[in-house]
Structures are given as structure tokens and as C-alpha cells.
Automatic annotation (TrEMBL), chain A:
It comes from Cohnella silvisoli. The keyword Transport applies. Residues 71-262 form the ABC transmembrane type-1 domain. CDD domains: TM_PBP2. Belongs to the binding-protein-dependent transport system permease family. This is Carbohydrate ABC transporter permease. PANTHER family: ABC TRANSPORTER PERMEASE PROTEIN MG189-RELATED, ABC TRANSPORTER PERMEASE PROTEIN MG189-RELATED-RELATED. It is found in: Cell membrane. The chain crosses the membrane at residues 12-33, 76-96, 108-127, 139-162, 183-208, 241-262.
UniProtKB/TrEMBL annotation, chain B:
It comes from Cohnella silvisoli. This is Sugar ABC transporter permease. PANTHER family: ABC TRANSPORTER PERMEASE PROTEIN, INNER MEMBRANE ABC TRANSPORTER PERMEASE PROTEIN YCJO. It is found in: Cell membrane. It is a multi-pass membrane protein. Belongs to the binding-protein-dependent transport system permease family.
Length: 277, 296
């Protein structure tokens, strides 16, 4: 890429690169290290390794967040909405890219338009819609909103991907007498697996990390999600940083594991949607 | 007749693929959004609403808080877009090469993107905290105590902290797209360039940069769309304060609708204005950026 450099320059360059990369994960390391410090140690020595490891803050965070229940709430909402979105968006993306006429392209544009609509614009009217349908403070209400709001991006990435899937297999299947539906579910869907994995993972992050939507429409404390529980810390336990960070760890860890396993798919999916779309 | 019916049936089957996604998208996203257009012409406060024409829009022009939020949003959008794409491109150029550890580096740079902005807000709130925060402590240790600041309480600094934290979080995303763009450049073009003496900067400007134009377009557009709606980072870092000095349009809409007052009609007018600005800006930018893309 760049012009050749001397070996020494290369080493210094690599060292600098590593240092700048540390900048990106240091805050995350900081969270994990701070969460096992005692409150007083954290105040005295905010950075560096802890002297006395303690799980005190974790125990308190588990209790205050009602972790078992709120984790279950988040998981329920996340899994149901992510699973439904990926199937619905795959179906739509398939029809759009195979039909490819004016009507279907119009529908595609309609979906894509959702990407430039700010959520804040839907925020107030959605409150009214949910109240009118008696869905406020229900899991379904929040899930339905995710189904609507995650669709644009999912359709965008998936239809870019479907265009790259060869039509021959489907044609062969239809000659063998396979109907539109069974062709889709038995032949096309398995071929879409890589793109679907990307969409599943990215949407999972979005829902898992979201706090605005559940905070507005799911305020019942029994149904509250983990992020909503954590955001309540700020007012109640102001300055109890080790407690806050223990809470942060409890939210971050599951997604960190997903990221490390699914990394390959995330990156390929982002680029597929961006470059082909 | 029979053939016509069969054809119609097939068409209906295809259309049925669109129905589930379209249904939820229209009912729980697009139509509520569009209804903002109507609400923006009323003084709806959650209970009663009266048609008041363009009064909300007129009021906005003279509302100092709203004008400030527009100015802030402009600063955020320009600052983040320029820095994120500049540094992201630099990172991509360095990390597109193959060497030991390059994958680990990419993983590390992308990692902040996967965390909730709420969490990022806590962590950076701690790092930038004036008394026990790391930044001020490091400055103390370096005997640069006079540079210590209330990073999030001084309005002009707080705005730049929001810019920096957002860039820090989203850099990996831009980088990944740039890397894919760079990988798509055929090697022989560089060889030709070598023969013509295009090396260093000239190689970058004349070969690399024009050829990653599609990646550049999508990155800039995604930044624009995202940053004009910037909400989470502000909500988590400053909550719009001190006062309303770091408020963006999006946080303003939130505060109007769910904050101290329930001015839903006024909030809707602001959100319509935001949407129109995003639409206009992205259309202009897409046209402008597409024009400089070259076909391979």
C-alpha cells in the first residue's frame, strides 16, 4: 500500500498502532477492572489493577437490577423480535429482488425511506398508537415496534444479498413442481443463511442495547429490561461507580461473547449491504 | 380465463411475501411517523388538541433553545462526519495490509460499536469526571494541572467531547467499509501506477481515492443520516446540559415530548423539520458524491 519503510520504522509504527488500538478497548477493560474494586479503592485509585478483588458490587448489582427477571425480559423481547424480523425481511427482500418490477421497486423505496426517518419522529405518535391499541406496558407492544423499526435496515441488507444468489436452483425447483412458498422456505432460505446471521446479530445488538424504547413504552418495573434497570442506577446510586460498572458488565458480557463468535458475519454483512446496496 | 386466474393467484402469492413486513412497518413505524405531519399543525399536549396552522413553525424560528439545538446538530454532524471518515480511512489504509495481529487490531477498533451508548456514556462519564476521572488525573501526574477541565460541564468542551466519543464508538464501522473498498481495488492498477511513477501521495490521490468512492459515499451518507439524529451519546453524556447548551434536535424533541412539558404538537413540528432537513441533505450529498464515483 504505502511506500516501503525501514525495519526499525516498521517496528515503531506497529507499536504506535498497538497503542492506538488499546485506546479503543481501554474503557472496556476499565469497566471490568473497576467492577471488582471496592468503592473506596476505586475512589482512591481509579485506574490500574485492583488490590483487593471483591464481588460485592456484583452481588448488589444482581439484586438491585433484579437481574434474573430483567435478563429474561430483555431476552424474550430480543429473541422474538429478532427472529420474526429476519424471516419477514427475508421474505420481503426475496420478493422484491426476484419480481423487480415497478411496484416492487416502489415498495423497496418505501422500506428504505424508513432508514432516514428519525426515531424521534415516531416516538410521540407511537405512544398514542400503543395507548389506543391497549399495548402500552406490554411485551407485544415493544416487540411490534421493533418489528417495524428494524425492517428498513434488514430489508436493505438482505435484498442486496438476494441479488447475488443465482436463480437457477429456484427455476429447477419450480420445474419439479415446487410451489413459490416451498421453494422459498426449502431452497432460498438456507442459501440466505450468512446474510441472515449478520442481520440477526446486528439486530440483536440493537435490541439488547436499546433503552429509549423500553423506557418509554414498558415502564412497568416487572417488565423492565436490563438497560432500563441500569439507567435507574444513575439517579439512585450516584457516584457508586463500582456498582454501576458491575451492572455494565452484566449487560455487556453476553453481547461480547456473541461478538467474538459472530465477528466474521458482522463484518461481511456490513460490507455486503454497503457496497452492493 | 383459467390462465388468467392462475396468473393472478401466482401474483397474489408473491405479494403475500411482502405482507407481514409491510404490515408491521406501516402500522408501527411509517404511518405513525407521517402522522407527525398533522400533529405538527396542532397544539396537542397529550390530552386535547386544537388546529393552530403553522404557529408551531413560526414559534420555532424565535425559540432560542431550538435555534441553539440546530447549531449544535450542525457542529456534531460536520465534526463527526469529517473526523470519523478521515481517521477511519487512515485506519483502513494501515490495517488493510496483512501482518501479524492485524485481525486482532480490527476486532479491537470495531468493539466499541457493539456496546449500548448508555454504557459508553457511563464509562466516558467516569473517564472525564473532574475529580476522580482519568483524564484530569493523568494531567496532574504530568504536572499539567492547569489544563484540567470540567470536560462535560463546560459547554464548548462538552460539545467536542460528544463528537469525540461518537467518533471513538463508530470509527470501526467506517473502517470496515473502507477496508472492503480498498480490497476491491485490482492490484494491476497499482502496478500500472508504479510504472507511471505514481507513488506515495500521488498514488493515493490518483488511484486509491477515486476507486474507493462508493465506500466513501456510503460512509459519508450513513454518517450524515446518523449524526443528524444524534441522540444516545448526548443523552448518556450530558443529558443536553449544562442548561440546554449541548442539546441536539433529537434530544430537544425528546425533552419537548417526554421531559418537563408535554408539548407533543410542538415536538412534532420540530421532528418534521428534522426529517425534511435529513431528506434534503442526503439527497444533495448522494447526488454530489455519486457524480465523482468512477466505474471500474
Amino acid at each position: 500500500m504505502l511506500t516501503r519503510v525501514s525495519p526499525l520504522g516498521g517496528y515503531i509504527g506497529k507499536l504506535l498502532l498497538w497503542c492506538s488500538c488499546i485506546l479503543f478497548i481501554y474503557p472496556i477493560l476499565l469497566v471490568f477492572l473497576s467492577s471488582v474494586k471496592t468503592k473506596s479503592e476505586l475512589a482512591l485509585r481509579p485506574f490500574g489493577f485492583p488490590e483487593h478483588w471483591t464481588t460485592e458490587s456484583f452481588a448488589k448489582a444482581l439484586r438491585t437490577m433484579n437481574y434474573g427477571r430483567s435478563l429474561l425480559n430483555t431476552s424474550l423481547i430480543a429473541f422474538v423480535s429478532v427472529a420474526c424480523v429476519v424471516i419477514m425481511a427475508s421474505m420481503a427482500a426475496y420478493a422484491i429482488s426476484r419480481k423487480n418490477n415497478r411496484l416492487y421497486n416502489g415498495v423497496y423505496l418505501l422500506f428504505i425511506a424508513g432508514m432516514i426517518v428519525p426515531f424521534q419522529m415516531a416516538m410521540i405518535p407511537l405512544y398514542k398508537v400503543l395507548t389506543a391499541l391497549d399495548l402500552i406496558n406490554t411485551y407485544q407492544g415493544v416487540i411490534f415496534i421493533y418489528l417495524g423499526s428494524l425492517t428498513p435496515f434488514s430489508v436493505f441488507v438482505l435484498s442486496g444479498f438476494v441479488k447475488g444468489v443465482p436463480k437457477e436452483l429456484e427455476e429447477a425447483a419450480s420445474i419439479d413442481g415446487s410451489g413459490v412458498y416451498s421453494t422459498f422456505f426449502r431452497i432460498v432460505l438456507p442459501l440466505l443463511k450468512p446474510a441472515m446471521t449478520t442481520i440477526i446479530v446486528l439486530n440483536l445488538f440493537t435490541v439488547w442495547n436499546d433503552f429509549l424504547m423500553p423506557m418509554l413504552y414498558l415502564s412497568d418495573s416487572k417488565k423492565a429490561t436490563i438497560t432500563v434497570k441500569l439507567s435507574a442506577f444513575q439517579g439512585m446510586y450516584f457516584n457508586d461507580w463500582s456498582l454501576i460498572f458491575a451492572g455494565v458488565c452484566l449487560i455487556v458480557t453476553p453481547m461480547l461473547i456473541v461478538y467474538l463468535f459472530a465477528q466474521r458475519y458482522i463484518i461481511s454483512g456490513i460490507t455486503a449491504g454497503a457496497i452492493k446496496g | 380465463m383459467e390462465r388468467k386466474r392462475r396468473k393472478l393467484k401466482a401474483e397474489l402469492k408473491w405479494a403475500s411475501f411482502l405482507v407481514p413486513a409491510l404490515m408491521f412497518y406501516l402500522a408501527f413505524y411509517l404511518l405513525p411517523t407521517l402522522s407527525s405531519g398533522y400533529y405538527s399543525l396542532t397544539d396537542w399536549d397529550g390530552v386535547k388538541s386544537r388546529f393552530i396552522g403553522l404557529d408551531n413553525y413560526r414559534e420555532m424560528l424565535n425559540d432560542r433553545m431550538i435555534v441553539a439545538s440546530f447549531r449544535n446538530t450542525l457542529l456534531y454532524t460536520v465534526g463527526i462526519t469529517v473526523l470519523q471518515n478521515g481517521i477511519g480511512l487512515l485506519a483502513a489504509l494501515l490495517l488493510v495490509r496483512k501482518f501479524r495481529g492485524v485481525n486482532a487490531m480490527r476486532t479491537m477498533i470495531f468493539m466499541p460499536y457493539i456496546f449500548s451508548t448508555l454504557l459508553i456514556g457511563y464509562v466516558w462519564g467516569f473517564i472525564l469526571e473532574p475529580n476522580i476521572g482519568i483524564v484530569n488525573n493523568v494531567l496532574d501526574a504530568l504536572h499539567l494541572g492547569e489544563l484540567k477541565q470540567g470536560w462535560l460541564s463546560e459547554p464548548s468542551l462538552a460539545r467536542w467531547m460528544i463528537v469525540l466519543v461518537t467518533v471513538w464508538q463508530c470509527l470501526g464501522y467506517s473502517m470496515v467499509i473502507f477496508i472492503a473498498g480498498l480490497q476491491g481495488i485490482p492490484k494491476d492498477l497499482y502496478e500500472c501506477g508504479d510504472l507511471d511513477g505514481a507513488i506515495g501521495w500521488r498514488r493515493f490521490w490518483n488511484i486509491t481515492f477515486p476507486l474507493i468512492a462508493p465506500a466513501f459515499t456510503i460512509n459519508v451518507i450513513l454518517c450524515l443520516i446518523g449524526d443528524l439524529q444524534l441522540f444516545n451519546q448526548i443523552f448518556a453524556l450530558t443529558g443536553g446540559g449544562p442548561g440546554y447548551s449541548t442539546e441536539s434536535i433529537a434530544t430537544m424533541i425528546y425533552h419537548l415530548g417526554f421531559g418537563n412539558g408535554v408539548r407533543w404538537g410542538y415536538g412534532s413540528a420540530l421532528s418534521v423539520t428534522l426529517f425534511v432537513s435529513i431528506l434534503a441533505l442526503t439527497t444533495v450529498m448522494v447526488t454530489f458524491l455519486r457524480r465523482r464515483e468512477v466505474e471500474l
